[in-house]
Specification:
- The chain is mainly beta.
- 14% of the residues lie in helices and 35% in strands.
Length: 210
């Protein structure tokens, strides 16, 4: 088990950099190793009665910043104001985008099996707004900086796939297989807090960043 990668900690919050292929929180009883379990064990080592609360989640295959609360009051406060939190991602997508900077607006439908797809009917789906900017390209792929204006499930993955540029390694929306999903939550910002991580090292295997 890797050591919990702590970015920031105070009396109310804990910010960690989640590795890919790790659930934020268990969805079944058999899933015992999660980011939540790592964070819970960490705070309990400091004091056995300490607790930790999930404020938001990242998909299992998405890496990056996750914010956890150390008490229920902070959790509720953050969740009630989550639309004010700025969140940005890096993604490596297939191909070259005609528009190097754009805002995608799609209506997303979530099925009972948690699959998400785009619908043309606004009455059937929920609006997802995703801003992107191309930072770098090579002969096969593009590196994007992404800012989400809404917090829909799988909105980045579904929206990019809809315009013909799925994220590399996306098992749901791409036929191209890779060792991971190349989506990383690199920035969280709210009030006077600003948290940011560097490019994941394995992104360099696809696009040279320096």
């Amino acid at each position: 088990m890797k050591k919990l990668n702590i970015i920031y900690e105070d009396k109310e919050i804990l910010v960690v950099d989640k590795e890919p292929k790790l659930l934020t929180i268990a969805t079944q009883k058999k899933e015992s190793h999660t980011l939540y379990s790592e964070a819970r064990d960490y705070v309990k080592k400091q004091y056995p009665k300490n607790k930790i609360f999930i404020v938001h989640r990242l998909d299992r295959d998405t890496s990056g910043l996750v914010l956890l609360a150390k008490n229920e009051q902070t959790k509720i406060k953050l969740q009630n104001n989550w639309d004010k939190v700025k969140r940005e991602y890096y993604a490596i997508v297939e191909g070259h985008l005609n528009k190097k900077k754009d805002t995608l607006k799609h209506y997303l439908v979530e099925t009972s099996t948690l699959d998400v797809y785009v619908t043309k009917d606004p009455k059937k789906g929920k609006l997802a707004i995703t801003e992107y900017e191309v930072l770098k390209e090579n002969n096969k792929y593009s590196l994007l900086k992404i800012n989400i204006k809404t917090g829909r499930r799988n909105q980045i993955r579904a929206s990019l796939a809809e315009i013909g540029h799925p994220i590399l390694g996306d098992k749901k929306y791409s036929k191209t297989r890779s060792n991971r999903l190349y989506l990383h939550a690199y920035l969280l910002e709210y009030n006077n807090y600003h948290f940011e991580t560097k490019y994941p090292k394995d992104f360099n295997n696809i696009i040279k960043l320096v």
